[in-house]
Amino acid sequence: MNDDTKKSGFDLEKILGERISRRDLFLRGGAAGAIIGLGPLLAACSSDSTTTTGGATSTTAEAKRGGNLRIGLVGGGAQDTADPHMSSFIPDDAINWCLFEGLLQYSPDYTPEYLLAEDVSPNEDATVWTAKIKADITWHDGKPLTADDVVFSFKRIVDEANPLLGAAALGGLKPENIVKVDDMTVTFTFDEPNVTFRTDALTQRLVHVVPVGFDPANPIGTGPFKMQSFKPGEGFVLEANADYHGGAPYLDTLTFTEFEDPTARVNALLSGAVDAICELPPSQLPVIEATEGLVPLNSKSGGWVPFCMNLDVKPFDDVRVRQAFRLIVDRQQILDNAYSGVGWIGNDMYSPFDKGYPSDLPQRAQDIEKAKALLAEAGYADGLTVDLVTSDAVGNGAVAQAEIFAEQAKAAGVTVNVQKVDSAVIYGDDYLTWGFSCDYWGLRNYLQQAAAGSTPDAPYNETHWKNDEWYALVQEAMQTADDAKRNDLIRQAATIEYNEGGYIIPTFKNQLDAYSDKLVGIEQNEVIGIPLGRWRLHTVYFK
Amino acid sequence: MPPLLKIILRRALLGLLTLLLVSVVVFAATQALPSDTARAILGRDATPERLAALREQLNLNRPAVVQYGSWLGGVVTGDLGDSLVAKQPVTQLLSGRVKNSAVLVSLAALISIPLALVFGSLSGLLRDRGFDTAVSLGSLTLAALPEFVVGIILVLLFATQVFHLFPAVTLLNPNASIFGQLKMLVLPSMTLVLAVAPYIVRTLRASMIEVLESDYIQMARLKGMPERTVLGRHALPNAIVPAIQVIALNLAWLAGGVVVVEYLFNYPGIGSALMDAVSNRDLPVIQAITLLIAGLYVIFNLTADILTILVSPRLRTGLQ
């Protein structure tokens, strides 16, 4: 299953580079994956995948009940929260996915499917969306799920006095425009058409549904697991929700432990102290592969670590400099050396799984001569010096990637001073105004990503990208309900960014986890990494 | 007032002054760090409005001197304040972790000190013999290695690669007593023992050799005293004096050095709490932990000085 993974390269990653920053996970909201038949539910097609489960062919009949699954997580800290609308770090995220659910979720083949809702439909111009909730879904305390809960949840998220993290996904939804129609129906009314509300917004984990009067200290959800105990910064224990509407989990409990140090996390798995870990450092992949009884979970994903060139800052105000910098990058070298080959090459455009992504544009490759010529045209024939801000807080590989780029830039006469700072600085007062910096984004579809990072009013427009022609295309796409027409508009917009944009996107990351082959049913994501099979662990059992 | 008590009192007051200075330095250092708690908590999601609201809520808008004053006022009345991030009292947040670290450090001390005393004095007695050479080689090698290297080697050896005897990480069950889970503590405490013991061994060996060559030992032997009395009554008590100081310094080091070892083994003690607090700029927690470590330094040094006075006849009589 990991044939496409190159294992070449050496470890340049910094040990501390693991802490995933807030938006990283926020942006993973639109995540999805593809099950390669490991789950008991898909046992019928599991013959191809027997190698990944250590030779076990699983059938539902064999599924064993009981047991405690121990999982090693990337550490959060004292600020860990069980509030699904404030999920920031990986521990928050794991709690969120196990305890709570949304109106929709992405199915493993990256199509939105209904979860708590049985139908969500727009009016003609996509300004009013009507959601119908499934009957017979109960909360962990036994109460039924109703429209009141849905209205409460969304009002809680977009509360004007204290908007929660999910508000960004909901495109200016006003609290008074979330209305209960009857016990099972809610309408959402927007000022402007919002064609991607159902597919791109309602699938995000930051808009999961909570019960009326929700208290994060007593996190009651509809998910397959319930909270048993929680120690922020250390770990938490979840227990099976026997009444789960998707079928009772096989496991009795999940015990999560948080690890500051990636090495300790890997050691925990190697020594059998935990059964599974999320975020295996790519450099450790050969170790896992060489260890009997352990299986890596290597999934292609849409997470990306761009170099962000700020169009308002010299020299990046000149499009020729941006083009030159994009030609300086040797993408394969970054992939091999900063990410141990675990990932795939990018082409300076985001949202590679969007139906409108222009995959036929030529793959950009290193061309130092052309880069030099462009720099000379821009008036930098005698060389150029820039500062590049990066941080371990951006994620695994971000610092190494910057250092490699600095080396590559020398050939074109560009001196890059890499400035390594800590989390509180890179995302501090200068965040979004750095001239040249690294950042991390998870996968989102094109219009959601543009609204978050590229439109003039985007909250995270770090490249200060503004282009009237592009913006007109994006606005039109946002209001175009016809899929083919919208995809064509997206294609045109992405092409403009491909030619003139402020991002350099050398690679996309893979989601890399590992687990013991005693476990059966961990889903393989093929599109984007939410760790360990989207945390959908109710179908997992011990052999 | 007995002279010894006077010394203790004076030293205790000086210790308090040290702690006060430490708290000023730590406070100033935290202020000098770029960014602040509100920024660290909100991260990328910081909008100017949310930042302003949170700074107001956390009282970060007050002048630095006022902030320090109000924190100090709390400490004097026994209130260490609330964690800015976890929003609960520091004492409540740290009590479990302080206990865990204390168990680990005490275990390491209880094993390393007697062990080092035996090896050190035997080494001195058997100077230049095979045993001494072996101990010297071992202790010099260990002293040269940073403790995290020692820890990684132990993990490779006993947990992941060669043998699978002990857990590589510490997954304490918070609902059970730590003493029922001693297996978890084997590798972390062994790392600390190996980090601390070599210094004590080296010191004791050197002072043992020095004492054995001294005139009064020769005199005792010439008088025909049994060798056991020579060693037990005359040599050891004198040789141990320099070792007391080294042990105290090492105990104090343990209290702070435990941070690295805790990180390595994912041990839920004050070390990881301190790292978390620094990255979050959570001042009350940083202050509480650094004061605890500084306090232990003061106490261990004071204890060592008093012990030194008590076991050295010259100093003891000098007091009268």
What does this molecule look like?
- The complex is a heterodimer of chains A (543) and B (320).
- Chain A is built from 15 helices and 21 strands.
- With 543 residues, chain A is α+β, with helices and mostly antiparallel strands.
- In chain A, the strands form six sheets. In chain A, strands 1, 8, 9, 10, 11, 12, 14 and 19 form an eight-stranded mixed beta sheet that branches. Chain A has a four-stranded antiparallel beta sheet with strand order 4-5-7-6, with helices on one face.
- Chain A is globular, with a radius of gyration of 23 Å.
- The two termini of chain A are 21 Å apart.
- The model of chain A is unreliable at 1-59 (pLDDT under 50).
- Chain B is mostly helical and 320 residues long.
- Chain B starts with a helix and ends with a helix.
- The interface between A and B is large, with 41 and 44 residues.
Indicate the topology.
The complex is a heterodimer of chains A (543) and B (320).
Chain A: H1 22-26, E1 68-74, H2 90-99, E2 104-106, E3 112-114, E4 117-122, E5 128-133, H3 147-157, E6 178-182, E7 185-189, H4 197-201, E8 225-231, E9 235-240, E10 253-259, H5 262-270, E11 276-277, H6 285-290, E12 294-304, E13 307-309, H7 319-328, H8 331-338, E14 343-345, H9 368-377, E15 384-390, H10 398-410, E16 414-420, H11 423-426, E17 436-438, H12 446-453, H13 468-478, H14 483-500, E18 503-504, E19 507-516, E20 519-520, H15 531-534, E21 541-542
Parallel strand pairs in A: 1-10, 1-11, 15-16
Antiparallel strand pairs in A: 2-3, 4-5, 5-7, 6-7, 8-9, 9-10, 11-19, 12-19, 13-17, 13-18, 14-19, 20-21
Chain B: H1 3-32, H2 37-42, H3 48-57, H4 64-76, H5 90-125, H6 130-144, H7 147-160, H8 186-212, H9 215-222, H10 227-265, H11 270-280, H12 283-311, H13 313-318
Helix pairs in contact in B: 1-12, 5-6, 5-8, 5-10, 6-8, 7-8, 7-10, 8-10, 9-10, 10-11, 10-12, 11-12
